Amino acid sequence: MKLRKLIGFNLLTAVILGVVGFYVGWWIGHLFKAESLDYFEDTGQNDISLFIAYLVGVIGFLVGLGFGNYPVQRLLGKPASLREKEDQGAARYFGLCTDHKVVGIQYLIGIGAFIFIGGLNAMLIRFELITPNQHAWNGNNYLTLVGLHGTMMMGMMSSGIIGPFANYLLPVMIGARRMAFPRVEALTFWLLMAAGVILMTAIGFGGFPTGWTGYAPLNVQANMGMDAYIAFFALVGLSMTLLGLNMIATVITMRAPGMTWGRLPIFVWGTFTTSILMLLAAPVLISVLLMVAMDRTAQTGFFNDAAGGSPYLYENLFWIFGHPEVYVLALPGMGILLEIIPVFSRKPLWGYKLAVSGMLGITLLSFLVWQHHLFVSGINADLRPFYMLSTELISLPTGFIFVAALGTLWLGRIRLAVPMLFSLAWLFNFLIGGLSGVFLSDVPSDVTTHGSFFSMAHFHYTIMGGLLFAFFAAIYFWVPKMTGYRLNERWGKVHFWTMFLAFNSTFGPLLVIGFLGMPRRAVTYAGYLQGANTWVSVSAFVLGASMLIFLANFVYSLAFARVPAGANPWGSKSIEWQLPSPIPLHNFDRIPTFAGDPYPYGADAGTAQRPVVAPARPTP
């Protein structure tokens, strides 16, 4: 009985219904094949069965979690609760719950688990590349590992910061008790978890050869593992769209009195601008994946040259999503950076309006740069100057973020706690990523480096060096507020220095290896590059070990040491730190009123410009 209560009946039911739904869908798909889709006999596979199996399985999973209860009760004319399992102890973390703080912690653990899976794939890739000749994996398996790693990381980390930290903190930061659409908030998480499981099933269907970009015509020609890629990214896109819509609605409609646009915490601005990108870009991804699915199942010809389609069309549609996606990953990290630095510099955020302008500028320009990915794909030469210019222009609003961070650090009373160390590392890594990106924004140098390890190293400096370091900065900064317990500071610093040094020892040499001509996604390479690749692989293994150090610290600190964090261990002036740790169920007894600077640090700033709010009492 205790085990059942801990696991949660809804989660167990969801898994059962999801598995049953998968096989029911598979059976339905084969009925279609038997009656009308004879052309599947030519390929020896039935993609429509797998798509229907994924669809019915996901629906069964969501119904098992309880997402069908509310609409059914309303259709039957019965009163439906506005809250789901918000006060059911540990069981609420294993099912549908409408408390935004529970959803935030669900995201943190769920996404963290898939990050470790993606990281394991990276270790397997580097193991293969220790030697110039294939020795562990054949070509197909190697490409599958590369595709699973990139797709898992890009899909899951799209919500890697907004999912855990914005869901948990954004309502509190704006003085609200909940998100605008609590059930939609919970739905975005469970869609993402279903997507992650679906992607891992690609191994059982032969994998896919396209990497994370899924380019045509390979995406039409590939075996059934490609269907898992399509279903994964379609669910991720749906989750992103709903998550962005919910965040925007919450910020616009649920701000407390006095919380004007000019007083929004900078992390809220980072979340808001990211949500705009999610809402506008993710539907393009869903649409292009639907077109690929139709090419694979209904013999349409959107991306098939022989049928009048164009693989080049796929590249354009994908990168209309794909480049805003880069800033979906980067903008929340910028918000975290500028949220943490004032706390540990004991200074107000310098250039608040400049930083907000930078975020808004990035949001706009990110939709105007996608074709720099296509400089070697047959782009009209007359379009190249525009996309070179727009790509280089986006460095300006990005520079605003750096100027705001450096201005805040200047003459500050800096304290090098673990969150601050990760924030400073973000500045270093993202700067290297930005400088290396200049080579990819100009046509002459891009022609030389495109498709090489230089491009891959730049991407990792920008995304992993930015997003993942910001992710850990947020964990060390806000997990004490979310759980009530501090993470061990000494082991946190061991984790940081191991991760920072190993990261740069891994991807710095890859910039050089790329210039020396090593291509991406190739299982073999020239023998003269073996020494450098061995160095990179060993560094990557140390980088992987740093994640184990973090995991050990995380588990030990929260499960065994359990050192109380107190309400405000960092001395922050932000409103979430004026509440108990962890934050009570309903956040506030009464909605607060805001006034003054959102970052009142320094000798003359005073201490009472942010409201001190009494903790919420349990509702009878």
Task: Present the secondary structure layout.
Elements: H1 2-7, H2 9-35, H3 47-65, H4 69-75, H5 100-128, H6 139-156, H7 162-173, H8 182-200, H9 218-221, H10 225-253, H11 266-297, H12 311-345, H13 352-365, H14 384-393, H15 395-409, H16 418-441, H17 443-449, H18 453-462, H19 464-483, H20 489-515, H21 530-561
Characterization of this structure:
There is one protein chain. The protein is mainly α and 620 residues long. The protein has two domains: 1-76 and 88-96, no CATH class; 97-578, Cytochrome C Oxidase, Chain A (Up-down Bundle), CATH 1.20.210. Helix content is 64%, strand content 0%. The chain has 21 helices and no strands. The model is unreliable at 1-8, 603-609 and 612-620 (pLDDT under 50).
Task: Provide the CATH architecture of the largest domain.
Answer: Up-down Bundle
Give the CATH level 1 class of the largest domain.
Answer: Mainly Alpha
Q: What percent of the residues sit in helical stretches (DSSP H or I)? A: 55-70%
pLDDT < 50 runs, ≥5 residues? 1-8, 603-609, 612-620
Q: How many helices does DSSP assign?
A: 21
> What is the 3D shape?
globular
Radius of gyration: 24 Å
| Cα distance spanning the termini | 27 Å
Tally of domains: 2
Oligomer: single chain
Order of helices and strands: HHHHHHHHHHHHHHHHHHHHH
